[in-house]
# Entry
Amino acid sequence: MTFVIGAACVDVMDRACVEECPVDCIYTGGRMAYIQPAECVDCGACEPVCPVEAIYLDTDIPAGQQQFVTENARFFDESLPGRTEPLGEPGGAAKLGDVGADTPFVTEYSS
# Structure
């Protein structure tokens, strides 16, 4: 299991979770943040600080938001618009900085 970020994060980008994460595994796209599943240690420190309650264990994501589990992985596994290679395991969000792009699903998402 790993934590994922759901629909409530789209266009909010509060970043409290980024600051709280002890392993620096929460990366920011253009419209939302994403948790790198291989870097996440499942500590849960990010979950209580999210002001919009958008962070869930992947097995507990609310009905209707299951696509965000897929998109969270896709953010790291596939090339994003404007990037020639997948992010993979970048080794820390602070080192990489804002990615500034999202998966096509999130780019087009409307609540």
